[in-house]
Write a sequence for this structure.
């Protein structure tokens, strides 16, 4: 099985390859593509994330190094789609959990309240585990 990393919002949390101190080449164990699970942002989709990577040219730039797997969150979007998403990317849209913005004007405070956060963290972990063992891209 290929090594697995998680890519979320464009940030990788795993190194792509290791260099051999003897000759500076990539070790044969790490020479195969790194399998990256790409988790989309709030109220978008795996398809949206894949399109963003394509528009930035990152899919082609990384195709020899990475096998990127795009997944959708387990929940349909339950609120308004972000203004910087809807005009540029078609739905359906998904969310990992729901957040509600609460503005307290007299104190100049903005809070985000997350509904059922523990449940949705569990669903996120399950999605990561399913995709870590799958060869099929979703999104």
């Amino acid at each position: 099985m290929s090594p697995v990393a998680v890519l979320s919002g464009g940030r990788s949390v795993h190194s792509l390859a290791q260099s051999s101190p003897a000759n500076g080449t990539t070790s044969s164990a790490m020479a195969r593509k790194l399998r990256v699970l790409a988790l989309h942002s709030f109220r978008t989709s795996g398809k949206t994330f894949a399109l963003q990577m394509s528009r930035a040219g990152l899919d082609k730039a990384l195709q020899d190094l990475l096998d990127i797997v795009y997944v959708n969150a387990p929940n349909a979007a339950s609120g308004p789609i972000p203004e910087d998403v809807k005009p540029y990317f078609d739905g359906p849209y998904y969310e990992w959990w729901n957040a509600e913005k609460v503005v307290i004007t007299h104190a100049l405070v903005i809070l985000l309240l997350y509904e059922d956060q523990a449940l949705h963290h569990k669903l996120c972990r399950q999605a990561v585990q399913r995709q870590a063992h799958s060869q099929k891209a979703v999104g």
Notes: The CA atoms of residues 5 and 36 lie 5 Å apart.
